[in-house]
Specification:
single chain, 312 residues, alpha+beta, four-stranded mixed β-sheet, 17 strands, 27% helix, 24% strand, binds S-adenosylmethionine
Length: 312
């Protein structure tokens, strides 16, 4: 894997992806992750991925998008990943987990006798995920069935599922949350930790990842993943607990549009903030002097996980 990582770093440099004080590394039990190569302080930008290197709906070949009207962005990005056989992608593809790795860890690929051992909550989520995949495959098979095998589409679909980020631009701010899904070479190598994570942020030009605390050389750097639409709320075990968090830390104002984002602090640039029947509404500055009214349905982003409110 060392040669593949060196190759990826050279490719990334050519693409304008800046990596500072850290490098991808094969880690026991976690595939590839990112580790510090020198002492890092808090607030250092360790990765900058220019917007034009993201794989998004906007830069998917127009013929692929046009051939799949009404398909989810997840389906379109996955089909495009399968159909794109350009050698330019080889450096990135070489560090993907293999099909065998994906099959080993993701229950959607497991035989039914193994799936039967899953706890109830996981079975519910898996049923939702399988339904979403089947719908996406039906849309793609109808157009590309002669060219794409279901197994290859599933592999690409699961890569998108486990490696995509949410990224909003002025153009996409008003689209549904799922339409903000993008793939980000190199950023997709950060593993997840629920604590001690680095912060991701984006603007029109780039996506950046910044340390929030000091790291020693060799220490792994993590980010904190959000959930996908096909994740959603888990089941609970009964009983009541008091769940609380500050909405301001979970939602952002993106060019006048309320959006789900950790550390978003929408309250800094929105006013007349109100809440009615699950919907948060406010007048939010759009950066052009306007303050359009924006609403977001909190039920789509907050759930009760075993008595604790969680945003996803
Ligand atoms: C965005 S990728 C991260 C890079 C990945 N490790 C790789 O080799 O390409 C997400 C996948 O990494 C793995 N992963 C992420 N965080 C992890 C952790 N804390 N421990 C173990 N595996 C993790 C899971 O398989 C997850 O689906």
């Amino acid at each position: 894997m060392e040669a593949e990582i060196d190759n990826l770093l050279q490719w990334a440099k050519k693409k304008g992806i800046e990596i500072n004080g850290c490098t991808p590394k094969q880690l026991h039990g976690r595939g590839v992750g990112i580790v510090a190569t020198r002492p890092l302080k808090a607030n250092e930008v360790i990765l900058r991925v220019p917007t034009d290197t993201l794989r998004s709906l906007a830069n998917t070949p127009k013929d692929v998008v046009a051939s799949l009207p009404g398909a989810t962005v997840h389906a379109i990005l996955s089909a495009s990943l399968c159909l794109d056989r350009a050698a330019d992608l080889d450096a990135w593809r070489a560090v993907f987990p293999s099909k065998a790795d994906i099959h080993a860890v993701l229950p959607i690929c497991w035989p039914s006798e193994l799936r039967a051992l899953l706890p109830h909550t996981a079975t519910t989520l898996l049923a939702r995920q399988s339904a979403k995949f089947n719908k996406d495959w039906a849309a793609v098979e109808a157009v590309y069935g002669g060219d794409l095998a279901k197994e290859d589409f599933l592999y690409a679909w699961l890569l998108v599922n486990t490696r995509s980020f949410y990224h909003t631009t002025r153009k996409t701010a008003k689209l549904p949350k799922e339409d903000h899904m993008v793939l980000q070479p190199v950023a997709d190598l950060f593993n997840h930790s629920p604590t001690g994570w680095c912060a991701g942020a984006f603007n029109e030009d780039a996506f950046t990842i910044t340390t929030q605390e000091a790291h020693e050389p060799g220490q792994e750097l993590f980010i904190k993943y959000g959930s996908h639409a096909n994740g959603g709320c888990g089941d609970n075990n009964g009983g009541l607990a008091y769940g609380y968090f500050e909405l301001n830390t979970k939602f952002a104002n993106i060019f006048g549009q309320l959006s789900r984002q950790d550390g978003g602090y929408f309250g800094h640039s929105c006013q007349n903030i109100r809440y009615d029947n699950g919907v948060l509404t406010a007048e939010c500055g759009d950066g052009n002097g306007g303050t359009p009214t924006s609403s977001i349905n909190l039920n789509e982003h907050i759930c009760n996980v075993n008595g604790q409110l969680e945003a996803f």
